[in-house]
Amino acid sequence: MWTVIGTILIALASVGTGLLIDRRWGVLPRNAGLAAGKPKLLEAPGATPASAIPASIGEIERLRRAQHCTCRTAMDVSADGDRVTYGGHELLVLRFACARCGATRSLYVRDQSPATAVAAP
Ligand SMILES: [Zn+2]
Fold first, then answer.
1. How many whole angstroms from 104 Cα to the centroid of ligand 1?
2. Less Cβ around it within 10 Å: N or C end of the chain?
């Protein structure tokens, strides 16, 4: 029983000492340092043609309705979107705008629907 409690206390004391040392001398890397060390942050899915989201017609409709701005307002999709070709695939580019703060965003989607279901409007 006391062995367990003693072990826990020693572990807590070690962690506490480590935190105190880090606070005093800054041993552990900070978030800013980590971010600066990384060449590039990962992009959000669909933010670029290279990270296009594979989606069926139904999923595309869901994506159209599911976009929220960083100000937490639901974003409006403008028109039907453009079609571009990237890496041999045809991508649908959905363009969104925030009615509240005016922010815009493009979402790249790779249409995964069966060819028979694709009906260009
Ligand atoms: Zn906004």
1. 8
2. C
What are the pLDDT digits (tens) for 22-81?
A: 777 777 666 665 555 555 567 789 999 999 999 998 999 999 999 999 999 999 998 778
Spacing, Cα 6 to ligand 1 middle (Å): 53
Residue 74 belongs to some domain of the structure: yes
Q: What is the DSSP letter of 1?
A: -
Residues 58 and 31 in one domain: no
CB hemisphere CA count around 30 (13 angstroms): 6
Q: Is the pTM of this model over 0.85?
A: no
CA–CA distance, 103 with 81 (Å, rounded to integer): 17
Could you tell me if 31 and 8 lie in one domain?
A: yes
